[in-house]
Specification:
Elements (H helix, E strand, L loop, with lengths): L20 H17 L2 E4 L9 E4 L32 H21 L4 H22 L2 H5 L4 H13 L14 H12 L5 H33 L5 H25 L4 H29 L3 H11 L3 H10 L2 H15 L1 H16 L12 H6 L3 H18 L4 H29 L3 H4 L6 H29 L1 H9 L1
Antiparallel strand pairs: 1-2
Helix pairs in contact: 1-2, 1-6, 1-15, 1-16, 2-3, 3-5, 3-16, 5-16, 6-15, 6-16, 7-8, 7-10, 7-12, 7-18, 7-19, 8-9, 8-13, 8-18, 9-10, 9-11, 10-12, 10-18, 11-12, 11-16
Length: about 475
Amino acid sequence: MQSPQETASTPSKPNIKRWHEDWLVVAIGAMALLVATFFVSIKPTKNVGKKPEVVNAAKGTIAKLESWKDAPGQAFYSKPKKGEPQFLGGALLITFAVIGTLLIPIAYSRGISPGSFLVGYLVLFVLAILAFLMSTQEVVKQYNFEYVLWALLLGLTISNTIGTPDFLKPMVIGDTFIKLGLVLFGAEVLFGKLVALGVPGVFTSWIVTPIVLITTYWFGQRILKIESPSLNMVISADMSVCGVSAAIATGAACRAKREEVSYAIGVSLLFTAVMMIVQPYIVLKTGMNPIVGAAWIGGTIDSTGAVAAAGAVLGDDAATVANTVKMIQNVLIGVIAFGVATYWSTHHRESGDTTRVGISEIWTRFPKFVIGFIGASLAFSFLPSLIGWDSSAAEAVSKEITSQVRIWLFCLAFVAFGLETNFRELWKYLCVGKPLMLYIIGQAWSMILSLAMATLMFGILYADKVKSILAK
């Protein structure tokens, strides 16, 4: 998913060849995973039949705040089984440095000055610490108010009261944080699990999405009689595929006006901010199977980042399912854009238009960070055995090092999502009649179909297989 900021032109830098940011994210994620492996080693044992000991020199270096009851300061002291509690200040500094190092190339590619980067990143990091602090309070934890919710609320509070300060705006790049986090997440989702989840995920995403897109477009043209076919198409794609990214890709494919794309993005951001909070709690309060609920979330919430946030509320397994379904759906962005461009060139061609649609459109619109996710999954699934590593050694890298970095990246992303969501600015999109009605009816239709397919695939046909795979 792309944020609205990504649609604007980025300052160019002389003599620098700019990468597509997704490729940059993939490269940074791959480097981070590679470096993390150097901290893990296998210590041979003299006892026959006993597994070699896995030594992780980086274990505990990425900060994880502890639970607390009465005094918030308790969260900043470790709770070891033996020995005295240790202050986590050093771990927080290391975490700040590690994540900052990962973000430097991204800031450089965006033309963000060192001063703006440092100040913006520092403020985001402090807000992330506050979000973790709020979520680790014992009473709060009992109600499943995860860090994702607090991070979002902190950002929303600032953006909708005093407004997001200008010095913060260059680092409000929530989608980039999410993409990098998802590349790292690939190391935790081994390929066998990805394939097993992929089959029901394909049905949940690839069948429902085109049905919703086509029927919503038909409804807008035939029933609501929306005057602009391009506005109708952009809203239909935005709501059925993947929010902002789909709106931008489809808008280009059907030659929509800038204000039509902006409207679709605005409505999407408004409803996404609500759905990412409401949907997981519908799952919790109704007693729905969290795996089914996660697949439902992955197939309906417009934003990849919001799916990650909502899925995390339901637990680690649910987050895996939600993210997998969403990334499978993301693959359709390029296909949908190609299909829309083909349809438009034959049904809505303007006089004198000689534009031809090539197959390369699919690759152009394909979200490249998905390749990083799949590559990390493949690498951690098969490479350990080739180099003589036990699976526990690979887990020491993915679950004890990079997963902690991923969690911090997600927290930073949700703070950023809140900071870039100003309800006063988005409220104007609720004043437009037919297009708003189209979005609401289409989204309701999508939620019904997605829930039915998620229940069928993840709750009935593949329920036992998914459960066994997630248990491994």
